[in-house]
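Can't paste images in this forum, so I'm doing it all in text. The chain is below; anyone willing to post the predicted structure tokens underneath?
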Amino acid sequence: MSLQESLMCISVCRAWKEHILGMLKACTLCTLRAKGQASLEVMPDLAVLRRLSAPSDKCITVAYETCIEQAAACLKDGTRSSKERCKTVEALSRFADKDHQAVISALCACLDDDDSKIRQSAAEVLGCLVEKNAQHAVAALCARLEDNAPNVRASSIKTLGRLAENDQGAVAAIGMRLKHPAPFVRCSAILALVQISNAGNEDVHTTLRGCLNDVNLFVKREANLGLTHLASKNDQCAFCASAA
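Text version of the structure:
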């Protein structure tokens, strides 16, 4: 069992716990000084120390914030390898606070990365770290509906479903993509509209019915499936209301 697991899972006397905590703190800060900058390898230890240390321990708070901000800066550093930046995105998803502005800004920037794996990871992690109706993130995700990579579009649609539920601004931004010349973009827009809309949104119903006249068969099929899905949602809401 690791030192972190021991601290969190095993009940030890206060003296020993403080002793182990002190050792972890000393080792972690020593590693930071030796490397000259925060690194991903100490982020888990800093997260544990932050949870267990006294609120007055500014040293740990500053070290943690520095580590998170440097990780966010790493994402914007074009000289870093894709593998390193993917690991950084994963680490931030586990240890960064929700709505940390430097992290959210870096993740939104990653949505324009040349590597589709990084764009996909950023889209997924935004769903974990951003509170609902975060306009900057929603706008960046809407732009990814035009991404050439299907996995990026799928992850963006899923995250929009979490962040932009019944958001009229998002509905308008997604609706604009229904006029895009590429059929795959129009299909993605339909899927996103269905994800973020409630069953009673008549504007979305009207929009989807209009898509049934699209020249592309795949777009027509997605519109038909979307209308069916929304009708199913409506039936479920009616059933729940009658059962209440």
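Confidence is low (pLDDT under 50) at residues 237-244. The chain is about 75% helix and 0% strand.
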